[in-house]
Amino acid sequence: MSRFSINTECFDIPVPGSPFDLGSPRRAALGNGAPAHAPAPAPAPPLAIVSKLAHWDEKASVRVKPRRILMRDEEAQGKTFFTPELVPVASHPLVARLGPEAARQLEVKTLYRYLDFTTRLELDAISPVAADIALGRAGPELPDVMRQDAFKLCTDEAHHAYFSDDMKRQVAEATGIAEDGPTTPRFLRRLRAIRRDLPRAERRLALGLFSVVSETLISGILCQVPRDERVVTSVREMVADHAEDEGRHSAFFSQFFGYLWPRLGNSLRAELGPLLPEFILAFLEPDTAPIRRSLRGLPLQPDEVETILAESHPPAQFTAGAREAATVTLHLFERHGVMDDPRLADAFREHGLRD
Q: Could you tell me the residue range of the domain that residue 247 belongs to?
């Protein structure tokens, strides 16, 4: 199964079924309003708004799951800290020749990066949007049931950030492997750059649309790690807890998008719509800078590091994997008419996300 494989069974709900130029050419092409050939805004279709977190008190990990404690004897029994297939650099021949300790370090540091990614995503991107929804600041007036759910989302996301940081500390203490140093995840750097290029009034909406993308994508990590019995139990259980919560979050943000998108005017849809494929790729594209830093911590020559990176993360494989990981998100956009605008459909094609 690839890094981006989709298995909707890892969610407990039914699921229906990155550098990019953000400079003046794109903005100039869009202009300050809707393109001349854009379809007229359709009236917002009736949408049955129901709570997607109705049983939150009985299901949310923050309510019903225990703290996951690392059992230190499991590594001695041959277990690893991350699914090896999700760390392709660790199995590269240039790394394999260095012995098992090199692969161990790369797997542990990949776990650290995943946990940091989760913490930053939840606190820097999703939590502000959930707070805006809860407080009625996220675009058109939202139904009260959606706002109630958003308060629960705020609690969930803070808990995900907490247990990610907690597990990272436990693993660092048990293994003696230090982090390579603080870094800002690539998706967050891209998100900040994209929002800086927008008028201030549109930045909150853009963050909301990014949250729709990130919460409806289904990554291989959430599906594979909980099922991989080679991985230490506490990590598998923690990722499983996260995946179960994310199933409900996916349903919430799908409903949120279905309510929001038809209520945006032509001008906003034309301006923000082309950002949707950019958000998908910014979220999924491998963050090679910290991987390079981890490789440089091994006895490798600089040219060997670049060879490992190039051969472990080939661009063609990424493009195919990204489309697979984004299947649910792309179907969501199709259902709500995003692709009905030829210009928006072209934007997805240009980014390799549509035939």
A: 49-350
